[in-house]
């Protein structure tokens, strides 16, 4: 050992406590900017916002602000529009995530192996991802409008609709308008994420499996899916939560109507906060949504941990 | 013979499916473009024609010459660009720490970041407004950049972490044995290998900031600090149903997002890691 006088070689062996302290602190230096930013811009306002749920908090009323206990939650329990928005949130979130994921996975697999023209095809199919959300909403609302959009006429010709009418104004199917817009906009998210994960699977494993006689389907189920599982779990977790909170398309396309049939919980919060300027009631609804989403995510985290351990 | 027939039908299916995806992805944008070049007198009479019998750029001329859109456009570029760069720097650091270190409180950090992905951001509008107001961060682009950066860091951290996870630890361990500090190994060896991840993160964040509407509406009330979505919404309410001009403005809003996207999209799936491990 003494024949190796290089400082760099010797340094890690020094038992200096200062160095050990520096090494122990290192991870915290890497995460410090994130933690400080999240704490001041999200956590502190979140706690302040949660306190609004127990206060009579109306932006336009300077005399409001007093604590009223559980009054908002009592009102919420008997609020039919809230329960309808809960049901709509389940439909909206499940349909959007399932369709985005299914179409995204197929697209990622289609793009995974090289073929002539892959670059341009990839650029074109990922394009909706770059479209601002409010613009996607306006764009699809326009397409569903029978006066200037082609979709109602096409659907009537195919027999899907009895007459070329706007599905956004039909209470029984209106929610599918924003869902279709959401699927269109969200497929690239899953495709990009899954494609990146697919490309990081070492090719040797496939080559070895081919030599051992594994067919395409066998390679997919025994190599691709296990490798993708953690990515799928985290992408679905983050996306489900994100979509459940995602009100932009609904606000732009239907504003929760007709007759609250497309109102999801987050668009209902938005309506309470910005139309009626009732931040107290809006925060109470938000708190219920938060608890539900936390419970959901807890289950998914457990699932991901068990997948990773396998 | 059978194998070549099978491979032909395989490729037909492959290209057929891709053609469906391309058509689905492009049709709404095609329609946006079509409406934006349709003169007002034809808008309703030729509503469902695939291309109007007469096209004009009148809507674009109006939007560019008689509206504040050039200013909104500039504001949005500044806000989205700054946010994307800041978030990527911060998330590369924290994503690297999550990928490589086992430290006390790591589970708490993961929990904290997941929680930020969960709560409805609309809850934060009033408290942030009250926090920013005395600091002079309302009606300011800086205020928007700070808010958007904080909102995007958690997701970007998870994204960067997944890219770092795909890179073998041996690479920087080898560099550290050769005498480099960990931070130097991170910058000079790991980060260049994660370029697809960095590009993906930049793209995601830029697009998210470019689209954000809620906080832009709440925090900015003056036209000179308005971003594009706020401007477009004001335009919609001011000129009620002038769909031609609205869509022309919409096409303009698409341009930077699409340009940025086309620039970075080829990095999204480059298999740099596979090359590095094999080489």
The CATH superfamily of the largest domain in chain A turns out to be: MetI-like
What coarse outline of chain A follows from CA principal-axis ratios?
A: flat
Briefly note the structural class of the backbone of chain A: mainly alpha
Strands of chain B, total number: 0
Keywords:
heterodimer; A: 310 residues; mainly alpha; MetI-like fold; 2 domains; 13 helices; 0% strand; disordered N terminus; B: 279 residues; 14 helices; 75% helix; disordered C terminus
What does this protein structure show overall?
The complex is a heterodimer of chains A (310) and B (279). By secondary structure, chain A is mainly alpha-helical. Chain A is built from 13 helices and no strands. Chain A has two domains: 7-52, no CATH class; 77-309, MetI-like fold, CATH 1.10.3720.10. Chain A has helices at 7-10, 17-52, 71-77, 80-112, 118-125, 133-143, 151-157, 176-199, 203-211, 216-244, 248-253, 265-275, 279-309. In chain A, helix 2 (17-52) crosses helix 13, helix 10 (216-244) packs antiparallel against helix 13 and helix 12 (265-275) runs antiparallel to helix 13 (279-309). The longest helix of chain A has 36 residues, at 17-52. In chain A, 41% of the residues are buried. With 279 residues, chain B is mostly helical. Helices cover 75% and strands 0% of the residues of chain B. Chain B is built from 14 helices and no strands. Chain B has helices at 2-36, 40-43, 58-66, 69-100, 106-118, 125-132, 141-165, 170-177, 182-193, 195-211, 214-219, 228-238, 243-265, 272-278. In chain B, helix 3 (58-66) crosses helix 13 (243-265), helix 4 runs antiparallel to helix 12 and helix 7 runs antiparallel to helix 10 (195-211). The longest helix of chain B is centred in the N-terminal third of the chain and has 35 residues, at 2-36. In chain B, 46% of the residues are buried. Chains A and B meet through helix 1, helix 2, helix 4, helix 5 and helix 6 of A and helix 1, helix 4, helix 5, helix 6 and helix 7 of B.
């Amino acid at each position: 050992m003494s024949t190796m006088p290089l400082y760099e070689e010797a340094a890690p062996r020094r038992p200096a406590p200062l160095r050990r302290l520096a090494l122990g602190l290192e991870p915290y230096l890497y995460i410090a900017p994130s933690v400080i930013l999240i704490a001041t811009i999200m956590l502190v306002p979140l706690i302040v916002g949660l306190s609004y749920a127990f206060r009579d908090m109306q932006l336009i009323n300077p005399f409001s602000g007093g604590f009223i206990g559980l009054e908002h939650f009592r009102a919420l329990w008997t609020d039919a529009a809230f329960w309808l928005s809960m049901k709509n949130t389940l439909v909206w979130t499940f349909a959007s995530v399932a369709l985005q994921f299914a179409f995204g996975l197929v697209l990622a697999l289609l793009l995974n192996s090289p073929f002539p023209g892959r670059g341009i095809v990839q650029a074109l199919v990922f394009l909706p991802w770059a479209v601002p959300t409010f613009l996607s909403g306006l764009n699809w609302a326009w397409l569903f409008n029978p006066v200037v959009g082609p979709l109602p006429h096409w659907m009537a010709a195919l027999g899907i609709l009895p007459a070329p009418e706007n599905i956004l104004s039909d209470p029984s199917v209106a929610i599918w308008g924003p869902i279709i817009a959401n699927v269109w906009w969200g497929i690239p998210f899953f495709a990009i994420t899954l494609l990146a994960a697919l490309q990081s699977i070492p090719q040797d494993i496939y080559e070895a499996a081919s030599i051992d006689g594994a067919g395409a389907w066998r390679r997919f189920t025994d190599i691709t899916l296990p490798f993708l599982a953690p990515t799928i779990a985290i992408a679905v977790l983050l996306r489900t939560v994100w979509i459940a909170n995602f009100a932009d398309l609904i606000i732009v396309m239907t504003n929760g109507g007709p007759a609250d049939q497309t109102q999801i919980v987050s668009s209902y919060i938005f309506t309470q906060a910005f139309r009626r300027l009732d931040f107290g009631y809006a925060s109470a609804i938000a708190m219920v949504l938060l608890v539900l989403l936390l419970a959901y995510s807890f289950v998914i985290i457990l699932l991901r941990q068990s997948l990773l351990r396998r | 013979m059978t194998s070549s027939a099978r491979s032909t039908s395989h490729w037909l299916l492959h290209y057929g499916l891709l053609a469906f995806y391309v058509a689905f992805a492009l049709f709404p944008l095609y329609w946006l473009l079509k409406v934006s070049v349709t003169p007002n007198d034809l808008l309703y009479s030729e509503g469902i024609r695939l291309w109007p019998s007469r096209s004009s750029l009148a809507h674009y001329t109006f939007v560019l010459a008689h509206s504040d859109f050039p200013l909104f456009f500039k504001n949005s570029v500044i806000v989205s660009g700054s946010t994307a760069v800041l978030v990527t720097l911060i998330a590369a650091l924290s994503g690297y720490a999550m990928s490589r270190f086992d430290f006390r409180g790591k589970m708490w950090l993961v929990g904290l970041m997941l929680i930020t992905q969960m709560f409805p951001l609309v809850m934060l509008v009033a408290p942030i407004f009250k926090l920013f107001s005395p600091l002079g961060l309302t009606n300011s682009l800086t205020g928007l950049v700070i808010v958007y950066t904080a909102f995007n860091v958690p997701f970007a951290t998870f994204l960067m972490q997944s890219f770092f996870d795909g890179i073998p630890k041996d690479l920087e361990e080898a560099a550290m044995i050769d005498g480099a500090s960990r931070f130097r190994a991170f910058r000079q060896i790991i980060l260049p290998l994660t370029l697809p991840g960095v590009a993906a993160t930049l793209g995601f964040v830029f697009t998210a900031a470019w689209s954000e509407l809620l906080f832009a509406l709440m925090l900015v009330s003056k036209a000179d600090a308005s971003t594009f979505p706020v401007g477009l919404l004001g335009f919609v309410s001011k000129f009620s149903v002038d769909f031609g001009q609205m869509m022309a403005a919409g096409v303009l809003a698409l341009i930077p997002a699409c340009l940025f996207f086309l620039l970075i999209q080829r990095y999204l799936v480059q298999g740099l890691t596979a090359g590095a491990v094999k080489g």
